[in-house]
Amino acid sequence: MLSRVADSLYWMSRYMERSDGILRMLKINYASSQDDLQDFSWDSVLKLFTPTEEERARLLVDEGRWALHFMVCERENPNAVVNIVTKARENARSVQDHITKELWQCLNDFYHSVRDGGLAKSLYKEDPITILDTLVKQGLLFVGTGDITMARGEGFAFMNIGRFLERAILTADILDVKISDMGFSNDDSDDTTYWKYMLLSISGYELYLKTYRSGFEAKKVVEQIVLNNNFPRSILYSINRLHRYFEQLKTEGNSENYRKVDFLIGKIKSKVRYSTVDSIMQQGLHSYLKEVKSELYIIGNTLNQQFFAYS
Amino acid sequence: MYTNELLAAYVNDPDTWDEMYKYPEVREQYRGVVDFMQQLSIEELNRKEEQARRLFMSQGITFTVYNSGEGIEKIFPFDIIPRIITSSEWNYIEKGIRQRLKALNLFLKDVYNEQFIIKDGLVPAEMIYSCPHFLREMHACPVPYDIYVHIAGIDLIRNNDGTFYILEDNLRTPSGVSYMLENREITKRIFPDLLPKNNVRSVMEYPTLLHRNLVSMSPRQTAYPTIVLLTPGVYNSAYFEHTTLARLMGVELVEGRDLVVDNHRVYMKTTGGLQQVDVIYRRVDDEFLDPLVFNTGSLLGVGGLMSAYRKGNVAIVNAVGNGVADDKAIYTYVPSMIRYYLNEEPILKNVPTYQLGNIDEREHVFANMNQMVIKKTNESGGYGMLMGNAATEEEMEIYKKEIVKDPRQFIAQPIISLSSAPCYLNGQLQPRRIDLRPYALAGPEGIEIVPGGLTRVALREGSMVVNSSQGGGSKDTWVLFD
Question: Does residue A304 sit at the B interface (CB-CB below 8 Å)?
């Protein structure tokens, strides 16, 4: 497979995963803004995806709908869903012969719907949850179409490497921002609504109820989001998947490049796998997540050097 | 006349050949389609039109117009009414194109090798050497099976008596074939069952034939040669076509930056290291192919490609330097080439063409400029064209001055009144001017032409210019069985 093609498949998938993460978070954040949450704020979301402090300050004085508009439709915001999906589609466009026609059409339709002029208006006037839901579904259709139609091979592996690397980073980011937002401390566990929405935004609420059957506790939330291998958005699960798809790339011709990246993935995998929630707390959650993220970034850069370098 | 509102406004110019209508009735080949359309209401037809538009959009059969940094997706206008060609018309076209292509290919072999045609005085040497597309780099360069033109998109038009004329021989990187294929797919969707009921021949075979020919060009004797389609990249207006063809043939779509030449061999950069390339179906123009030989600033090609090509380590499709054969001034000599190389009379006619280097012809053209179309010899796509009937005095003066300065750059032809075909516009059928570009494929086993092609249509009323850059659209093109 051409290095350029691998690169584009990887980024197409990363951007699609990112758009999914953003859309879910926006939906739940909006939903929670309708509840009587004492200290509700768009601040944590904007902190993750807004380039400048001034921009954030400006948006925060406005009402929530503007934050939504900014995160979905604002062309000037590089992390707005419209721009993320456009980037995914541009990557897909240059590798149309490597993805199935169904997958291309699915992404292309998504692209046309996020660029539809009516979207901004209905986001402002109608129920944002309905609108965000239809967008989330288009993203799900992309994942499902890929799963059902794409041939299993190098291309599919690169797509999944992109997806799970992005997911691990996104989860670490969300956890980091949301918890520091709370002024997190070990025994602070009273604000159940906050935890509920936090878990909902990464589709982990139901699993939490089933696993812990008791009230909300920051420590348990951290345990599920970082270490639960049955939770598809946990850091551990994402890294395990990342490794599994990466292992499919091994051939006789690329042992040197392969070894370098494999080493890095193995290292982070062990680090997370042999952490416990107590050891994380001891180190400090923020410092732990910072280390995890920095190692994930290094994996991204090394993949770039070893597999995608072509120009 | 028809009382039905669909046909009520169908007034065709009596001095024009209409594909559908021959006073006082609809031609036989169109009856099935016209009857079918008449059963549909205007609302239904409008819905079909909208459905076609959405299908093009959703499949990304679009080109991007960059305005103020924001890309806007546009589709090439598509008219839902098919253009229909009878089997006897097609047989004639097919025979004519086959003959012409054979002669043009022999001409290319000749001018890049022994040049008998110059020595025998049929084509003046200055005509060849002054052509910017004549490339000395191709002299005595061996090409597999002596095939230069693997893919030709020869443009045909019809005069007011229905005679077919050759308008242009496109022998470099003719485009539009994806529209032949996609327009047919759209017709299948918007008019279910209409195609089988009308005995329409399929065009589906095109990618398979092309792929088979590409494989046979491979210089390495291997069961699975590496074939690539070289595209200028996503910003090219034909990018959609490149991806479609790559997908339909299952070959790798590459850009110049994906390739590298080492020791006169071409490789592509893959995740598993370098992989040798055997055949390049390029959609990049000659001058951008190799910055070491041609345009030194080009990033679209690969340095060293020409040396690998001349050594015979890679096949390039179409061959380099074909522009000398589809040059608009060389065009005049094609009928004599057919007689010279094949000892046959040309089947398809040339449009009468005036060489402006000849004083008498130039005088004649200047005196009758309002009935002439002036074309620049080295431009295509409807650029650099002056339609005498629509030009102002000033425009004509500017052209006259330029012609006198460098007559080799121009040719003149009488304006041919292109044939018209029905288009669905504003709830009615209206006649609009059309041309036809069938796609011919040449391989070791001969020349094959898929029954169909691209019909381009001038959607503006009265316009004779069908190029997409000048407001043209396209139609599905049907060739019927006997």
Answer: no
A155 domain residue, yes or no: no
Q: How far apart are CA B437 and CA B435, in angstroms?
A: 7
pLDDT at B116 over 60: yes
Interatomic CA distance for residues A45 and A27, integer angstroms: 11
Same domain, residue pair A231 and A296:
yes
Per DSSP bridges, beta strands B63-67 and B70-74 are: antiparallel
Residue that terminates a domain, selected from A96, A127, A150:
A150
Place of tokens 């990618």: B207
Least reliable range by pLDDT among A28-42, B10-24, B89-103, B316-330: A28-42
Question: Which residue, among A87, A115, A310, would best test binding to B if mutated, counting the most B CBs under 10 Å from its CB?
Answer: A310
Q: Does A96 touch chain B (CB under 8 A)?
A: yes
A109 and A15 assigned to the same domain: yes
Determine, yes or no, domain membership for A175.
Answer: yes
For residue A141, being part of any structural domain is answered with yes
Task: Say if residues A249 and B271 touch (Cβ distance below 8 Å).
Answer: yes
Residue B10 pLDDT greater than 50, yes or no: yes
Neighbour count for residue B105 (Cβ, 10 Å): 23
Q: What percent of chain B has pLDDT over 70?
A: 97
Q: From CA B253, how far away is CA B281, in angstroms rounded?
A: 10
Higher pLDDT pick, A59 / B13: B13
Q: Say if residue A169 is in the same domain as residue A124.
A: no
Calpha distance B219→B229 (Å, rounded): 16
Give the number of domains in chain A: 2
Q: Which domain holds residue A296?
A: 160-311
CB pairs under 8 A, 24+ apart, for A229-233?
Answer: A231/A204, A231/A207, A232/A203, A233/A167, A233/A171, A233/A202, A233/A203, A233/A204
Give residue B68's pLDDT.
Answer: 57
Q: Does A285 lie in the same domain as A170?
A: yes
> Which ranges of chain A have pLDDT less than 70?
36-40, 51, 57, 59-64, 180-191, 253, 310-311
Confidence class of residue B2 from pLDDT cuts 50, 70 and 90? very low
Quick one: pLDDT at residue B94?
97
| pLDDT, tens digit (0-9, with 9 covering 90-100), for B398-423 | 989 989 998 888 889 998 889 999 99
Six token digits for residue A220:
């348990």
B397 in contact with chain A, both atoms CB, cutoff 8 A: no
- Whether the complex's predicted ipTM surpasses the cut of 0.85: no
Same domain, A111 and A226: no
Q: Hey, which CATH number is domain B352-414, 3.30.1490.270, 3.30.420.40, 3.30.470.10, 3.40.190.290?
A: 3.30.1490.270
Same domain for A238 and A309, yes or no, is yes
Residue of A nearest to B299 (CA): A311
Q: B175 in helix, strand or coil?
A: coil
Q: Does residue A260 fall inside a structural domain?
A: yes
Are residues A58 and A194 located together in one domain of the fold? no
From the list B261, B277, B351, B375, the residue with the least C-alpha distance to B317 is B277
Residues A278, A308 within the same domain: yes
Residues of B in contact with A307 (CB under 8 A): 271
Which among A119, A150, A181 is the end of a domain?
Answer: A150
Domain ranges of chain B: 352-414
> What burial class does residue B38 get, using C-beta atoms within 10 Å of its C-beta: 0-12 exposed, 13-18 middle, 19+ buried?
middle
Q: Is B273 on the interface with A (CB under 8 A)?
A: yes
Q: How confident is the prediction for chain B on average, in pLDDT?
A: 91
Most confident of the ranges B71-80, B105-114, B272-281: B105-114
